[in-house]
Amino acid sequence: MKNDHAAAPENTAPRRNFYGRRQGRPLRENRKRLVEELLPRLAVRLDGVALDPATLFPGKTGVWMEIGFGGGEHMAAQAAAHPEIGYLGCEIFLNGIASALAHVDAGKLANLRIYPEDVRDLLDVLAPASLDRLFLLFPDPWPKARHAGRRFVNQKNLDRVAELLKPGAEFRIGSDDPTYVGWVMMHMSRRKDFAWTAERSGDWLNRPADWPASRYEQKAIKQGRKPHYFIYRRI
């Protein structure tokens, strides 16, 4: 019997505990085709050795990475606006990957690669000081206190982020969840290796001009939630 669900390319990294869905509703035929044909050409696979992401983008002037790109709207817009940059997007939810592939296909984007597995495996092998910008936009806030350990923003992950970002590189975080906003501010205020660039409230309550909106962000605004936009600079 034919399997109606497209599958992402296999990865050799061992699986960790992962909380969340890997796939939602069945993919439409055109999205299945993109997963089967385009994703293998863009997917980053790990072979257990250190990876300098610059090698994925010959001739580019820098590398930006997005953790959990959702439907890929922000990622595709940034890649299109900055063809001189190599853009590495990470997402494990297959429906989001398929949506992002549709954006890549429509925009004929040639400066974008995708890691379709648990981002922690990728973070483990990336070379130090190899990223020029990192995005963590509207991650799952895990609002219940007993689930706080599942939030990406924690001191262990932030230690690794600090290692991966070049001096002067930006770490951008977006959230519309009040609990997560407070969580980010608490954890980032403890860091001596990051400087918050905001000088006034408008700097983090209004989306910067060079920060393309995502579908999730627009949905949050329509539902009455207020997004916050944090930009931290690696010292």
Automatic annotation (TrEMBL):
Pathway: tRNA modification; N(7)-methylguanine-tRNA biosynthesis. It holds the Pfam family Methyltransf_4. Keywords: Methyltransferase, S-adenosyl-L-methionine, Transferase, tRNA processing. Signal peptide: none annotated. It comes from Dongia mobilis. Its EC number is 2.1.1.33. The keyword Repeat does not apply. Transmembrane segments: none annotated. SUPFAM superfamilies: S-adenosyl-L-methionine-dependent methyltransferases. PROSITE patterns: SAM_MT_TRMB. Catalyzes the formation of N(7)-methylguanine at position 46 (m7G46) in tRNA. It catalyses: guanosine(46) in tRNA + S-adenosyl-L-methionine = N(7)-methylguanosine(46) in tRNA + S-adenosyl-L-homocysteine. Belongs to the class I-like SAM-binding methyltransferase superfamily. TrmB family. Substrate binds at residues 144, 176. One of its GO terms (molecular function) is tRNA (guanine(46)-N7)-methyltransferase activity. GO terms for cellular component: tRNA methyltransferase complex. This is tRNA (guanine-N(7)-)-methyltransferase. Residues 1-23 are annotated as: Disordered. S-adenosyl-L-methionine binds at residues 66, 91, 118, 140. Gene3D superfamilies: Vaccinia Virus protein VP39 (3.40.50.150).
